[in-house]
Amino acid sequence: MSKKWIVGVDLGGTTTKLAFITNDGEIIHKWEIPTDNANEGKNITINIAKAIDEKLKELGQTKDNLIGIGMGAPGPVNYEKGIVLNVVNLGWPNNYPLKDSLETATLLPAAIENDANCAALGEMWMGAGNGAKDLVCVTLGTGVGGGVIAGGKVVQGINGAAGEIGHITAIPFGGAPCNCGKTGCLETVASATGIVRLARMELAKGSPSELTDKIAENGTFTAKDVFDAARNRDELAQTVLNEVSFHLGFVLASIANTLNPEKIVLGGGVSKAGDILLNPVKSNFEQFAFSAVRDSTKLALATLGNDAGVLGAAWLIKNQLNQ
């Protein structure tokens, strides 16, 4: 085989995504395995190594065809030391030596990074970034994650915690409590859970909405339901959308005023709402962005979906090995 492969891994609390990827960013094969966080997470890297060996055998390949493995992991990461500082849902103790554990299990050179940073690298390399070397990626999902790339390199900060965009204070006074211990974080309004919370607050005021029918049918509703209702000109849903887009546009403008990236890419499940979210966010962004920033920083929707993490992880080791 003419082209060797990189292993990209996107580690989640429930599922681990893996892929064999070429140096050119082509995904040859991708699959998932359950994440076993029992026994202080000691089986995680062992299971990844087993999954790689089994998949190579299935595809009729050997480990000689692999040049290295990159992984995105939740939580702050010390990239230089290959240590995950702390993560709440994988069972690992603080300062877990993930790089060493991964290399021992797989017998491959390894590089690790925060999962949101990997998603940003993936979008930079093969997605909406289109090769932009100055880029901010914001993942709007159950929570809000972020990755900042400057000059083609991830901005990690002194403790590996740079890019925690979800914990920028969007509502300085009277905001909702966040899981991080602060109040008023962007995550409390722009995540899927935040959007549902805002809608429930509006419903509690007695405002009419088609979301009431969703509750009657299903016992609950989702952020997607809120966006669908807004498309149907539901006033309550539109009120929620206005609040979400205001705070998100304001925070993104503040980030852009500081960094002036070429692109800000919105990803994650919430971003699948598309233009009904992107357009009002752009309007608020333009209101709060400094003129030179407004004219040069562009907002776009992510294009890679769930592949962003594994592609960014592969780029990590590709870059480290200068492949």
Descriptive terms for the model:
323 residues, alpha/beta, Nucleotidyltransferase, domain 5, 2 domains, five-stranded mixed β-sheet, 11 helices, 12 strands
CATH class of the largest domain: Alpha Beta
Query: What is the CATH superfamily of the largest domain?
Result: ATPase, nucleotide binding domain
Q: What is the name of the CATH architecture of the largest domain?
A: 2-Layer Sandwich
- The unreliable regions are none
Kindly give the count of domains.
2
* Alpha-carbon Rg, integer: 20 Å
- Work out the number of β strands: 12
Biggest beta sheet attributes:
5 strands, mixed
Could you describe the 3D structure shown?
- With 323 residues, the chain is of the alpha/beta class.
- It folds into two domains: 5-122 and 307-320, ATPase, nucleotide binding domain (Nucleotidyltransferase, domain 5); 131-303, ATPase, nucleotide binding domain (Nucleotidyltransferase, domain 5).
- Helices cover 39% and strands 20% of the residues.
- The chain has eleven helices and twelve strands.
- The chain has helices at residues 44-58, 98-106, 115-126, 187-190, 192-204, 211-218, 223-231, 235-259, 275-288, 291-294, 308-320, and strands spanning 5-11, 15-22, 27-34, 66-73, 77-78, 83-84, 110-114, 135-140, 144-150, 153-154, 263-267, 298-301.
- The chain has a five-stranded mixed beta sheet with strand order 3-2-1-4-7, sandwiched between helices. It has a five-stranded mixed beta sheet with strand order 10-9-8-11-12, with helices on both faces.
- The radius of gyration is 20 Å and the shape is globular.
- It starts with a strand and ends with a helix.
